[in-house]
């Protein structure tokens, strides 16, 4: 078994118009910036993929990564919990102009919907959002004297995630808090594509330390020394680069 | 009304109530400051929604690791005994009753314990983050806030007018003027600034302040 791909171009080649894509990370931590940029390159060269639904905790920051995808007009709908950041202008302008749809989900509900999608659980009940406008239209049921809101699973055609080590069988470790949504998204997508800082041989990662087992991963591509969104934004980077 | 506590002093007052070894989540913004004012000899373990238990202070500028951030996306450091976990586990800690305390900010708190802290209405971009999860499950949900808005309107009200974060969830409020419990659908005044009369405090509060027994002076050091 060998799930590795030689290039980021190969990794994103199969993503189709209208797809639902989970993109890992919490802010910049754990965000697969290089893979998202490869997807933007493909869009600029071929016009595809577009009309995408993206699932992410946030809505991008600055003009790189997810924000750059939104800026190019590739994203029709965003499912997220917190569409604010240090520089949220790209999303904010499109949202207020009615050019992008937003489904706002409490953060823990978003995580659990993704987990449920990967675990084959079509719905679950949570106390979060009970009695608020985010629960409007959703079934409510009482358990042991407290009211809970029914929420549906969330699945995707593709997950684009970032991990630290990945072996050729797709077993993954993550770096510190860059784990966040990534292991959940690996479970919830038909095709999970992972950029890792280093590809290693099976057996290199101690089985006790595997965070995401390879069964949840379809493709692994190595991006050594990945960029951090925060560093790019502090350098006022744009993707693709714009002439000063 | 002249004197009131600074934001830092409100955070200090709230920090005095955190027990040694408590597991605590601090909301984004003002609540983050609470961690700096733990009394000597006490060490709470701080939880951040994005997946860390037991983080420490911010690193010096230039030494940030951007894979090591808190829910406010600020760089943090690690203390001995830290654990990392994914988001579903993180919110299992929140909703599952495993946190001792959540300390949150507020736009409005009502006498029935309702909290509004995520949306100022239909204009602009709505953002909720983990607030709707955090108000459920923590053994104590505490709010720290200015007593009034910048325009002088009460933030402690009879019923919230802004979109709710949670229903009947807040049990204590630390403000720039007072410490108030919420019990049985009422505000119960526990402490107030000595320089302020009960009538003056009531005048800037949007619902009746009940008094059970003595009201202590709210005493906070210069910070």
TrEMBL record, chain A:
UniProt cross-references to NCBIfam families, sorted A to Z: pcaI_scoA_fam
- Record family assignment: Belongs to the 3-oxoacid CoA-transferase subunit A family.
In terms of superkingdom, the source organism counts as Bacteria
The answer to whether the entry has keyword Ribonucleoprotein is no
Q: Which SUPFAM superfamilies match?
A: NagB/RpiA/CoA transferase-like
What InterPro entries does this protein's entry cite?
A: 3-oxoacid_CoA-transf_A, CoA_trans_fam_I, CoA_transf_BS, NagB/RpiA_transferase-like
**What molecular functions are annotated in GO for this chain?**
CoA-transferase activity
Q: Which of UniProt's keywords are assigned here?
A: Transferase
Coiled-coil intervals, chain numbering: none
Q: What is this protein called?
A: 3-oxoacid CoA-transferase subunit A
Automatic annotation (TrEMBL), chain B:
Look up the domain of life of the source: Bacteria
Cite the entry's keywords alphabetically. Transferase
* InterPro entries per record: 3-oxoacid_CoA-transf_B, CoA_trans_fam_I, NagB/RpiA_transferase-like
Q: Does the keyword Nucleotide-binding apply?
A: no
Q: Which SMART domains match?
A: CoA_trans
Q: Name one GO molecular function term.
A: CoA-transferase activity
Question: What's one Pfam family here?
Answer: CoA_trans
PANTHER family noted in UniProt: KETOACID-COENZYME A TRANSFERASE, SUCCINYL-COA:3-KETOACID COENZYME A TRANSFERASE SUBUNIT B-RELATED
- So what family is this one in? Belongs to the 3-oxoacid CoA-transferase subunit B family.
Query: Which NCBIfam families does this chain map to?
Result: pcaJ_scoB_fam
Q: What name does the UniProt record give this protein?
A: CoA transferase subunit B
Organism the protein comes from:
Tianweitania sediminis
């Amino acid at each position: 078994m060998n799930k590795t791909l030689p290039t980021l171009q190969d990794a994103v080649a199969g993503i189709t118009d209208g797809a639902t894509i989970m993109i890992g990370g919490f802010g910049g931590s754990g965000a697969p910036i290089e893979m998202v940029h490869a997807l933007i390159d493909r869009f600029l060269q071929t016009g595809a993929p577009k009309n995408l639904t993206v699932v992410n905790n946030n809505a991008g920051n600055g003009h790189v990564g997810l924000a750059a995808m939104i800026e190019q007009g590739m994203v029709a709908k965003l499912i997220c919990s917190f569409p604010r950041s240090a520089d949220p202008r790209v999303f904010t302008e499109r949202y207020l102009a009615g050019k992008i749809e937003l489904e706002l989900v409490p953060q823990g509900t978003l995580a659990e919907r993704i987990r449920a999608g990967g675990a084959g659980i079509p719905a679950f009940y949570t106390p979060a959002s009970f009695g608020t406008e985010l629960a409007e239209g959703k079934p409510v049921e009482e358990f042991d004297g407290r009211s809970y809101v029914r929420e549906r699973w969330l699945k995707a055609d593709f997950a684009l995630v970032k991990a630290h080590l990945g072996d050729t069988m797709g077993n993954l470790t993550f770096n510190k808090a860059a784990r966040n949504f990534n292991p959940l998204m690996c479970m919830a997508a038909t095709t999970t594509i992972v950029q890792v800082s280093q590809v290693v041989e099976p057996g290199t990662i101690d089985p006790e330390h595997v965070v995401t087992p390879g069964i949840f991963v379809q493709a692994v591509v190595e991006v050594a020394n990945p960029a951090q969104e925060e560093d790019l934004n502090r350098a006022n980077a744009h993707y693709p680069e714009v002439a000063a | 009304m002249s004197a009131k506590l600074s934001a830092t002093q409100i955070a200090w007052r709230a920090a005095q109530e955190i027990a040694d070894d408590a597991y605590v989540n601090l909301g984004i913004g003002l609540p983050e400051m609470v961690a700096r004012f733990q009394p000597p000899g006490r060490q709470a373990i701080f939880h951040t929604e994005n997946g860390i238990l037991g983080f420490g202070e911010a690193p010096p500028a230039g030494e940030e690791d951007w894979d090591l951030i808190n829910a406010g996306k600020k760089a943090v450091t690690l203390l001995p005994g830290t654990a990392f976990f994914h988001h579903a586990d993180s919110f299992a800690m929140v909703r599952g009753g495993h946190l001792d305390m959540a300390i949150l900010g507020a736009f409005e708190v009502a006498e029935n314990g309702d909290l509004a802290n995520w949306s100022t209405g239909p204009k602009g971009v709505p953002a909720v983050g983990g607030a709707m999860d955090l108000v459920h499950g923590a053994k104590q949900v505490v709010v720290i806030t200015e007593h009034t808005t910048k325009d002088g309107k009460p933030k402690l009200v009879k019923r919230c007018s802004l979109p709710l974060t949670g229903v009947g969830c807040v049990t204590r409020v630390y403000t720039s003027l007072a410490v108030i419990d919420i019990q049985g659908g009422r505000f119960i005044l526990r402490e107030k600034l000595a320089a302020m009369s009960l009538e003056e405090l009531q005048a800037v509060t949007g619902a009746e302040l009940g008094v059970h027994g003595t009201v202590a002076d709210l005493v906070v050091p210069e910070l």
